[in-house]
Amino acid sequence: FVPTPISDEEKQEMMESLPGEIVNTVAGLAISKFPKKYKDLIMSEPIAMDRSILKTLQENNLSKTKEIETSDGNLTCTIITIKD
Asked: What is the model's pTM?
């Protein structure tokens, strides 16, 4: 749903906001499918993190990664389940 023509600046802004929009959509749909209601569920906005922090989290927890290749670069989505 990208209007044309689009400036390079507008394209860059859209590319930067895309991961957050994807996470918001996926999280919103997933929450409605949870098997039980969570009274104390707190959702924050998506955050960007350093690759070394992400690698450490992945090595010490359960994770699933999906990479989507596009003509503008790759989009990597990683879901990490933090162990107690």
From this structure: 0.46
| Sign of CA pseudo-dihedral 47, 49, 55, 59 | negative
Q: Provide the pairing of β-strand 62-70 with 73-81.
A: antiparallel
Q: Kindly state the tokens that stand for 59.
A: 């090595």
Rounded to whole angstroms, the Cα distance separating 1 from 6 reads 12
Q: Over the stretch 26-49, which tens digit does the pLDDT of each residue have?
A: 877 887 777 777 777 766 666 677
Instruction: Write out the H or E segment, with its range, that includes residue 66.
Output: strand 62-70
Please work out, in degrees rounded to the nearest 5, the angle formed at the alpha carbon of residue 42 by the alpha carbons of 40 and 47.
160
